[in-house]
Fold this sequence. Notes:
- The protein is an alpha+beta fold and 160 residues long.
- The chain is built from five helices and five strands, in the order E-E-E-E-E-H-H-H-H-H.
- The relative contact order is 0.10.
Amino acid sequence: MAEAVIIDRVEDDDYQGKSFKKVTDKTGKTFNVKYGREGALKAKWPLLVPGTAIEIEWGDYNGKPFVKDFKVVAGAQEIAELQPALEATTESAPPPKTVSEDIKDNMKWKSDVIEINMWWCQLGNRIGDGSLEKDYPTKAVKIKHEYYKKMSEVIEVSFK
């Protein structure tokens, strides 16, 4: 089975000490071009240049496709017209967050929740030990009322 593609990007990569080329076509599909039998594909690596049209012959190894061979073909313009460009079909996505940014955002959210819960706990303790009435004698009844109202909404228990 052969497939014609136009190369968009070529990157050097390796896995377990074995080098290969990671090739991305104009549609965004990525495939690896490895050594090939007796280095046959490695000898063709210099042909993998962005903008080049190639025809890929696919092989199958244990149900996984691999590049068996490829050859440079003329008619890159015709192939480009047949292949939809990835940029036209996808929206511009924001760059992915780094792990440290993700952790930082998560910790900010957690610290906000912890702080809110801590204040609710402190208010409940002050209501329970009577110190709220001592420090705020005119506002204690209203504060208690709001506290029990909010708690009844959160835990779905009616306080009478």
